[in-house]
Amino acid sequence: MTAPEAATQATDKTPTTRISWRDSLAVYLQPRVLIVLLLGFSSGLPLALSGSTLLVWMRESGVDLGTIGLFALVGTPYTLKFLWAPLVDALHVPFFTRAFGRRRGWLVFSQLLLIGAILLLALTDPARSPLFVALGALLVATMSSTQDIVVDAFRVESLPESEQAAGMASYVAAYRIGMLVSTAGALFIVSGFEGTGITRGAAWMWGYVVMAALVLIGTVTALVATEPEQSARAEAATRSDSAFTRVLHAAIGAFSEFVTCRDAFAALAFVVLFKFTDAFSGTMTAPFVIDLGFTRNDYAAIVKGVGLAATLIGGFAGGFVARRYSLAASLWIGGVLQAIANLSFSWLALVGVNQWALAFAITAENFTSAIGTVIFVAYLSALCRNPLHTATQYALLTALAAVGRTYLSSGAGYVAKATGWPMFFAICVLVAIPSLLLLAWLQRRGHFEALGPVKV
């Protein structure tokens, strides 16, 4: 999550005047919003490099499906990032904080470490040393999740209320584009290098080197940006406190507010399970397409073209649903749609190698996943009400959401191997049932009404 796994805090003010489309467009062109957009791209880029893109590389190298499924565990840092989020909130990075400021210092520092981790992963060989591949992927995930923590805090603190909605929309769109660049884009780049006559292993290495270079977009953005005023004020207010005191206040304040709320543990379980159906199927989508007989470029072209369009349209559709219906009703719509979409892959498994069938399945997956993500982001926003602990609370919630993608999905490869592809994706529909049961229970308890209105 990762990410998106990113969201802005819900606001309680609704504009009473009509805003023209020119004014709306002008908001998206504000320098602060453009900065957030570029940081969103930087946040979305690394996720697939230790996930789906890496799985394609491993499958092409002949790694067993069961081992590939276990590689979902390298996403552990996305699950545990709340443990060091208070450190990011409270501590200074030598030289970087003094030179660039509290948030920008951490941004530049984490991005430079991320570039190094991607380059290290590029030098590994999945066929000969899957353990070293796992260690490299784990480093990439750790640096990527740290960057996410900082970008979340920077986005919330740098945007005024009038630009929060545009900032969130820009961030989510750019995040998804970054993910597509590191999936479809990376596969095209690898194919291009392979077309020059170099070996497949070398082509994959240079593909990852290009991805590492793209992280510099976020680094340059951080250098051009200005330190958020809220961050500067917080720094001034806590300057006399010790590092230990700052960390303690950030950690205790964020965690205590969750566990003392009514039905807190049921709500947190719902956060873990809501996107599980997406994660369980998504872990094996790329190996499934390759196993079915599609080429790497077939998959990349459809994901980059049709998948991107479906994602963006689904994002707008999710925003419409969240504005049109109550939060509980919106979660029902998103939860059911993203579960049912898995059946399109069961159908594809029965049809076989068919470009139109693949395009339909990818469209259904991306469209419904985007709807579910936007609505889920609205829910996470509603849970974070205290601006004093927003960054750490976002880290906690998105880390919990990553549990489904990381731990619960780690056995997906063994399930697919045991049942076959058509039945596997039918099972992916069934794993959504626990989250829907929790949704019904929370709705009956009045959980969503207690959160109040949510503005997306």
TrEMBL record:
PANTHER family registered for this protein in UniProt: MAJOR FACILITATOR SUPERFAMILY DOMAIN-CONTAINING PROTEIN 3, SOLUTE CARRIER FAMILY 33 ACETYL-COA TRANSPORTER -RELATED
Which Gene3D superfamilies does the entry link to?
A: MFS general substrate transporter like domains
Where it sits in the cell: the answer is: Membrane
As one GO molecular function, the record gives: transmembrane transporter activity
Q: Write the record's keywords in alphabetical order, separated by commas.
A: Membrane, Transmembrane, Transmembrane helix, Transport
Q: Which family does it belong to?
A: Belongs to the major facilitator superfamily.
A single cellular component GO annotation? membrane
Pfam families recorded: MFS_1
Q: What is this protein called?
A: AmpG family muropeptide MFS transporter
Origin organism is Bradyrhizobium australiense
Q: Which InterPro entries match?
A: AmpG_permease/AT-1 (IPR004752), MFS (IPR011701), MFS_trans_sf (IPR036259)
Q: How does it sit in the membrane?
A: Multi-pass membrane protein
Positions of transmembrane segments: 33-57, 63-84, 105-124, 130-151, 172-193, 205-226, 299-322, 329-350, 356-382, 394-415, 421-442
